[in-house]
Design goal:
Blueprint lengths: L2 H79 L5 H84 L2 H13 L5 E5 L2 E2 L8 H9 L4 E2 L6 E4 L4 H7 L10
Parallel strand pairs: 1-4
Antiparallel strand pairs: 1-2, 3-4
Helix pairs in contact: 1-2
Length: 253
């Protein structure tokens, strides 16, 4: 195979791998931030529940204090029943006691609601407290793994970029310029395989003469339809036997 053709295929392979690594490297900080945000949200929710539990306790104490005051009034007014002198005063006192007892029942209902709410909040607080250290450890371990993975990918990308410079330097200026130009306006690959007489990028059949020249691998040729650089790979022996073969083919080695 023509040295420039072999080199430009390798350059493309290196560029593709570098691009893949770059996507992965760029995505890792977002993954790390997502993990940290999830932990922060967990902690924030836990702290808010603890605050709500403390507020619930204070509200219950305030309600219990109000209930105690009303109960004292009821007791006082019941004692005063024996001191009233007229039926009218007696009925008025009973009505006042009834109103106070009604108010006290409402407060007691509120206290019960607060107790039920507190039980639910306490359950969540206890569950979160039991999970908290485990969540912190899990997130820390996952962030460390992602950071290590990112460093490995940065190292690999650096190695591949160095190799790319080395291979590109061995390419003729015209072929490298052609490759870069095709990359700039053609999505996907700039260098593509020819298979069964077809350009695998645009699926257009090559003219027999061009196909034969591509198979020899003695020159850098482009597809007459999509302008991509073409190369040919010798298929495995089993494929040749199954398809009857296409004659002698050039390999990448």
């Amino acid at each position: 195979m023509h040295p420039d053709l072999k080199a430009v295929v390798e350059v493309q392979q290196l560029d593709q791998r570098v691009a893949e690594l770059t996507v992965q490297i760029d995505s890792l900080p977002t993954q790390i931030q997502t993990l940290q945000s999830q932990l922060d949200d967990f902690i924030h929710t836990h702290e808010e529940r603890k605050k709500r539990l403390a507020a619930n306790l204070k509200e219950r104490k305030d309600l219990e204090g109000d209930s105690k005051v009303i109960q004292e009034k009821i007791t006082k007014h019941k004692d005063q029943l024996y001191q009233v002198k007229t039926n009218e005063q007696y009925r008025a006192m009973l009505k006042e006691i009834e109103g106070e007892e009604g108010n006290n029942r409402k407060i007691e209902d509120q206290i019960l609601e607060k107790m039920i709410e507190a039980e639910d909040i306490q359950k969540h607080v206890q569950e979160a407290a039991a999970r908290l250290e485990g969540e912190k450890a899990r997130v820390a371990a996952e962030i460390k793994r992602l950071q290590d993975e990112r460093q490995k990918e940065l190292d690999e990308r650096g190695r591949l970029q160095a190799r790319r410079k080395e291979v590109a330097a061995a390419l003729s200026g015209s072929v490298l310029a052609l490759y870069e130009r095709i990359r700039s306006y053609r999505p996907g690959a700039a260098v593509v395989e020819v298979r069964d007489g077809l350009c695998t990028a645009c699926n257009v059949r090559l003219r027999p003469q061009v196909y034969n020249e591509v198979r020899t691998g003695e020159a850098v040729l482009t597809c007459e339809n999509c302008s991509r650089i073409l190369y040919y790979l010798e298929p495995p022996a089993a494929e040749q036997a199954a398809g009857g073969g296409e004659g002698t083919r050039v390999t990448m080695s």
